[in-house]
Amino acid sequence: MRRYPTMDEILEACRTNLDIDPSPETIQKDIRDMKLPDPDGFDAPIRFCRKNQGYEYTDPNFSIRSLRLQDNDIAAIKESIDLLHNIGGSRMSRNFSHSLEKVLANYREDFPSGDIRRRIVQNDTPPESRGFENFDFFYNACNKRIPVSLIHYSYTKRNFKSVILHPILLKEFDNRWYIVGYSEDHKGIRTFGLDRVYDPILLKKKYISADSEDQLSYFKDVYGVYPIEGQIKQIIRITTNSIATNYFQAYPIHASQKVKKNSRGTAEISFELIPSMELLRLFRSYGSEIIDIRPMWISTYVRKTSFQ
Questions:
Q1: DSSP code, position 208
Q2: How many Å separate Cα 52 from the centre of its chain?
Q3: Which residue, 91, 131, 172, 268, has fewest beta-carbon neighbours within 10 Å?
């Protein structure tokens, strides 16, 4: 952006803006590489101007940000944006969505209204849910490891509670978004639905990193987002009729799932999981198509709540 920068100014810009400390020899090598033709370089018309004692582009309109795209590159980007919008829908970060569109905006490339193409992918895209406006806030808090103070509303207890959370990741399950992190109040990893979170603010305090073992078990050994408190990873077995067997085979719910089919079409399906509320609800949704569940306490819970 500055005309005729000297080597010292380039080095200072690297230290200040990029937090790196290259040598003059490295900068000179990079400039040589930038001058190489595509695909090895940017074909940049750089030279050292002796009159102004600094570097310049001999073509004042040149910019490495204005890389030349071929027609097939532009078509591929359009298809990718369409696909990401279709898959992500309202769940995709606004900043991410806008950044994708800016890629083509640099080329003054519009999507003409007359360019109507047959949609060949259609998915269930729910309306933007309450709380999604805080997606970018929590994304940055997770990325920069900044503690957060928030107000959480409990649907079951019908009350508000202040929580200090050290966020780890954003997790989507069943078209709902959740923030997962270490809760100072609970002294462990907890999950909070974005739809129940109000007034989050960043805190200037030391970030607490959750134990790596707890994170691995919490994220990899749970179907859903709410593991049942006090339960550990265990073998869970269900016996299914032929219809439910087909669905579990077509749509496995976890990497640990194993299916042992019988001659009549029924099957014994096992999982190695920490029991969660979502898992119990899934079993309940199959009704009589799940013939038996072990351990017994899960079966009792599912059968009892099925009639409530």
A1: P
A2: 48
A3: 172
Global pTM value? 0.59
CB atoms within 10 A of CB 190: 19
Domain architecture of the chain: domains with CATH: 7-57 (no CATH), 132-210 (2.30.30), 234-305 (3.30.70)
Residue 198: its pLDDT value, please?
A: 95
Taken as a whole, the chain contains a residue count of 308
CA–CA separation, 280 vs 196, rounded Å? 22
Residue 123 has pLDDT above 80, yes or no: no
pLDDT digits (tens, 9 = 90+) for 257-276: 999 998 888 999 999 999 99
Nearest by Cα to 229 from 175, 187, 167: 187
Predicted local distance difference test score (pLDDT) of residue 216? 62
**Cα gap 248→282, rounded to integer Å:** 11
Long-range contact pairs involving 160-167 (C-beta distance under 8 Å, separation at least 24) = 160/198, 161/185, 163/192, 164/203, 165/190, 165/192, 166/207, 166/208, 166/209, 166/210, 167/138, 167/141, 167/142
Asked if 126 and 90 count as a contact pair (C-beta separation under 8 A), the reply is yes
Using only C-alpha atoms, the chain has a radius of gyration, in whole angstroms, of: 27
Q: Can you read off the two tokens belonging to residue 274?
A: 């920490």
Query: Of 283, 155, 267, 288, which is closest to residue 223 (Cα–Cα)?
Result: 283
**Rounded CA separation 274/224 (Å):** 10
Burial of 162 (0-12, 13-18, 19+ CB in 10 A): exposed
d(CA 167, CA 208): 9
Question: For every residue of 20-85, which 3-state class applies, written as one string?
Answer: CCCCHHHHHHHHHHHHCCCCCCCCCCEEEECCCCEEEECCCCCCCCCCCCCHHHHHHHHHHHHHHH
